[in-house]
Amino acid sequence: MTQYTNPDLIGDSPAWMSFIWIAFTVSMTLMLVGIYYLPVDWWIRGYLYMGTLFLTASTLTLSKSLRDRHEYERMVNRVKTARTEQVLNKYES
C-alpha cells in the first residue's frame, strides 16, 4: 500500500536566476541603446521604444500566465491523485 506524498518542490538555482536577470538586463540595455543611436527622426525612435517596452511587457505577462496555468494543472493532478489514493485505500482495507 503506497501512500500519496507531495513531491519535493525544487526551485531554480541562484546561478540560473542570476543568468536570467543578467541576460534580460543586457538585452534590454543593448536594445534601448541601439534605438537611441539609430540615425532616424525622434518619432521613429519613440515608436521603436514604445514597441520594445510593450513587447517586453506582453512577453512577461505571457510567461507568467503560462506558468500559472502549469501550476494550476499540477494542483488539479495532485488532487485527482489524492482522491484516487483515498478510493484505493478504502477498497484495500
Describe the protein's architecture and organization.
- This protein has 93 residues and is mostly helical.
- It has one domain.
- 80% of the residues lie in helices and 0% in strands.
- The chain is built from 2 helices and no strands.
- Helix 1 packs antiparallel against helix 2.
- The longest helix has 51 residues.
- The protein is elongated.
- It starts with 13 loop residues before the first helix and ends with a helix.
- The mean pLDDT is 87.
- This is YiaAB two helix domain-containing protein.
- It comes from Deinococcus deserti (strain DSM 17065 / CIP 109153 / LMG 22923 / VCD115).
- InterPro entries: YiaA-like, YiaAB.
- One of its GO terms (biological process) is DNA damage response.
- It holds the Pfam family YiaAB.
Annotate the secondary structure layout.
Blueprint: H1 14-36, H2 42-92
Helix pairs in contact: 1-2
Kindly list the characteristics that best describe this protein.
single chain, 93 residues
Please outline what is shown here.
The chain is mainly α. The chain has two helices and no strands.
Helical element count?
Answer: 2
Mean pLDDT: 87
Helix content: over 70%
Number of domains: 1
The best one-word shape is elongated
Low-confidence stretches: none
Structural class by secondary-structure content: mainly alpha
User: Could you tell me how far the N terminus lies from the C terminus, measured between alpha carbons in angstroms?
Assistant: 10 Å
